[in-house]
Amino acid sequence: MSARDTDWDGVRLHVVTGKGGAGKTTAAAALALALAAGGRKVLLVEVEGRQGIAQLFDCPPLPYEERKVAVAPDGGDVYALAVDTEEALIEYLEMFYNLKRAGKAMTKLGVVDFVTTIAPGLRDVILTGKTSEAVRRKKPDGSFVYDAVVLDAPPTGRIAKFLNVNDEVSGLAKVGPIRNHADTVMRVVRSPETAVHFVTLLEEMPVQETLDGIAELTEVGLPVGGIMINMVHAPMLDSAELAAAGAGELDVAEIVRGLKASGLEHGAEETAEALVAEAAEHARRTALQAREQERLAELSQPRYVLPLLPDGVDLAGLYELAEALREQGAA
């Protein structure tokens, strides 16, 4: 495996968050592929129970175990884990309290749901704890099992609370296994080996949530990573044409003549009107992207552009996005 300079040398836990609908899981999966390229082994963790990773990699629903889901470019491997809260709680009880049998009984009685409802901080400790354990896990020779771990985390509005588990458990336990476990998690999360990346669209609300999320993480001392700008539309018109389209000044008659010259005699006028309307919308969208780009440019964090995939996101599209991240130095 050849050495490669990236923006995140030394980072082993990549937390990916973003506003709902911004493509957070897609970006996390693409980042995992990018990080695994060249012979590395990466774990992609899902904690929201949506089986989004399985859908992206076109595989059956993931069980609560680490499974290989993809081979990265140049021979790396991506493993995935869909964390099940109940199974993780039973594992937690067995690990710290030797209560596996009791944990299974609790599941049957519905006590697990009760516990995680009245003490939501405990749920986050369990979920982040499972991820941080994978980050720290080593082979017998002392090397890490995974070169990197990518966490497909909750949305931006909940990310600070989700990661700042020490505050969340402060009312649950001052000492003991829960507190010790939370402390261990926070040592990983706050370390230079962790970066929290934001996924956004070039739209007002997602960008504002990104700005607010970065400010919130900074305030509580959590490590901010980069910004992945997803589904970026490439301009199809030059600047003069965009200005004319946006101002409603395109020459419809000229477009009609061009359509007829290309052999489209029937319905040329209607087609031209539709093209003018589409061009106006494209100009509006391009101007919106440029405005939101300027807002993001005021931040000091690295930014990575992920193009809009015309045919949607499939496995081939994930590899395309992973390559884009690598070309821009994200992995």
From TrEMBL:
It comes from the Bacteria. InterPro entries: ArsA/GET3_ATPase-like, ATPase_ArsA/GET3, P-loop_NTPase. Residues 13-186 form the ArsA/GET3 Anion-transporting ATPase-like domain. GO terms for molecular function: ATP binding; ATP hydrolysis activity. This is Anion-transporting ArsA/GET3 family ATPase. It comes from Thermomonospora cellulosilytica.
